[in-house]
UniProtKB/TrEMBL annotation:
<dbReference type="InterPro" id="IPR011250">
    <property type="entry name" value="OMP/PagP_B-barrel"/>
</dbReference>
<dbReference type="Pfam" id="PF13505">
    <property type="entry name" value="OMP_b-brl"/>
</dbReference>
<feature type="signal peptide">
    <location>
        <begin position="1"/>
        <end position="23"/>
    </location>
</feature>
<feature type="domain" description="Outer membrane protein beta-barrel">
    <location>
        <begin position="44"/>
        <end position="254"/>
    </location>
</feature>
<keyword id="KW-0732">Signal</keyword>
<protein>
    <submittedName>
        <fullName>Porin</fullName>
    </submittedName>
</protein>
<dbReference type="InterPro" id="IPR027385">
    <property type="entry name" value="Beta-barrel_OMP"/>
</dbReference>
């Protein structure tokens, strides 16, 4: 009996000493970490927007031609002819504009715009064999365009873009006159074909408001500049107007995603911990 008790005591003592060693050798269960959340942009990328713009522009008149009239001394009949201005320059001016557009997807958008060019001063000159004449006037215009744009991509909230537009312009010339004489010609007003090419970049101010800055080149087809007057020659025609604009403005998008909204976390169910051996 004594031997049996002693053997049982030794077995218990051995088991108590060995269990920490065996426990150290067994691998601990590990918990797999949950995957990181998945971010995605909203699917609805289209939306209507309005825009307002202001610019400073410099216009170049490509040339000015006008009718002249002489008298045939033989039979006293009128002989029509033609001459051109020696030069003609428009000073810089400002414009205000607005428009309505639609963002089709994350790359394409389109809008229609109207810009009013405030009056720019015009200075020109003509000459003949015996005299020279200074010609002054003012020009204003209403430019209507249908435009399409390609947004190249967005980096840190900045989106470069290129675009093109086509439409028409109503050009208005004030009276053309020589300040040194009594010669005047009534200015003309007419609609003309126009097109434009644009490049620039937009910047997200908020998830709805975008700052837009860029350059626009526009060309307005030639047309009548002034009418005939008994005290002078005429009518006169400009050969077209090229305009270089530095523009800035704001766009406000009513719905959809304009590319400025922060990415949202896609729904993911809470993963249950997985234990591995």
């Amino acid at each position: 009996m004594f031997n049996t008790a002693r053997k049982a005591l030794l077995a218990l003592l051995f088991a108590g000493l060995a269990s920490p060693v065996f426990a150290a050798d067994l691998p601990e269960p590990q918990v797999e970490e949950a995957p990181p959340p998945v971010y995605e942009q909203p699917v609805d990328v289209g939306g209507w927007y309005i825009r307002g713009d202001i610019d400073y522009h410099k216009s170049d008149v490509r040339g000015i031609d006008y009718m002249t009239y002489g008298i045939d001394p033989c039979n006293c009949t009128v002989i029509p002819g033609g001459k051109s201005f020696d030069y003609g320059k428009l000073k810089g001016g400002f414009s205000l504009g607005g428009g309505v557009g639609y963002k089709i997807n994350d790359r394409l958008r389109a809008d229609v715009t109207a810009d009013y060019w405030f009056k720019s001063n015009f200075n020109g000159g003509t000459s003949d064999l015996v005299s020279t004449s200074t010609e002054v006037s003012k020009m204003s215009a209403l430019l209507l365009l249908a435009n399409a744009y390609v947004d190249i991509g967005t980096w840190h909230g900045i989106t470069p873009y290129v675009g093109a537009g086509i439409g028409g312009a109503r050009v208005k010339w004030d009276t053309v006159y020589d300040p040194n004489t009594a010669e005047t010609n009534p200015g003309a007003s007419n609609w003309r074909f126009a097109y434009a090419l644009m490049a620039g970049a937009s910047y997200c101010l908020t998830d709805k408001i975008i700052l837009d800055a860029g350059y626009r080149f526009s060309h307005i087809q030639g047309g009548r500049m002034f009418e005939w007057d008994a005290s002078s020659a005429g009518p006169g025609f400009d050969r077209g107007i090229n305009t270089h604009e530095v523009r800035g403005g704001l766009r406000y998008q009513f719905g959809g995603n304009n590319g400025c909204a922060a990415p949202v976390v896609a729904y993911q169910p809470e993963p249950e911990p997985i234990y591995t051996k």
